[in-house]
Amino acid sequence: MGLTAGLFGLGGGALMVPSLTFLFLWQGMYANDATHLALGTSMASIVMTSWVSMRQHHAKGGVRWDIWRKLLPGVVCGMLLGMALVLHVDGRYLSWLFACFMAYMAWKMFFNVQFQGHRNLLRKWHLFGVGSGIGSMSALLAIGGGTMTVPFLTWQGVSMRQAIGTSAALGVPISCLGTVGYMFFSHDHDGVVGVWGLVNVPMVVIISSVSRWTVAYGVACSHRFDEQRLKRMFALLLIVLSLNMVYISRW
What we know:
The protein is mostly helical. 73% of the residues lie in helices and 2% in strands.
């Protein structure tokens, strides 16, 4: 999780949600409960990796703070909307949504697909709408937003390294706000030892403690690889994650 956070600007949720869902299912939990608990636990685990990743990328000049500030208001609004919807969506539908979205982004990044349209959205109010989409999808899928932010920024002409760094910085407010929502806006698992709302606290502590040490290595690698290689690696990771989530959704 820490390696992917540093290397690709992901908070780690894209890797954690399928993994935790599989683990909870293996322990005998119902599919719907397993997916929702995986979403909450993943979101809380993203806080530490996003913070460490953001600091590492900032130190290397990899964060576009001007873009970050323009995206933030929309992200906050989108997160609130997503948190209001997440408990009303069946866990299996969330699994399929996650898988389809990952596959689409992988296809776009691997083949370097160039969409027709405006490429100057970074200077317009459109960023509020883009931020809202990133925020709502991040809340629904418990991801730090990197799977959306990185492709969008590269499409707009931002270098891959700066897109990754800006995505990592955006993951900090996304993960913090999302964690509060999953912990306090739901009580499906109240009474279960170690579980607060939809967050497995002991698991978050263990994941965060280990992953924070591998973030720095991921950041160093992201600044050493050429951009096309980074894109292909990013796409292959998304393909693996989407196939894994399709398999899990059958449970």
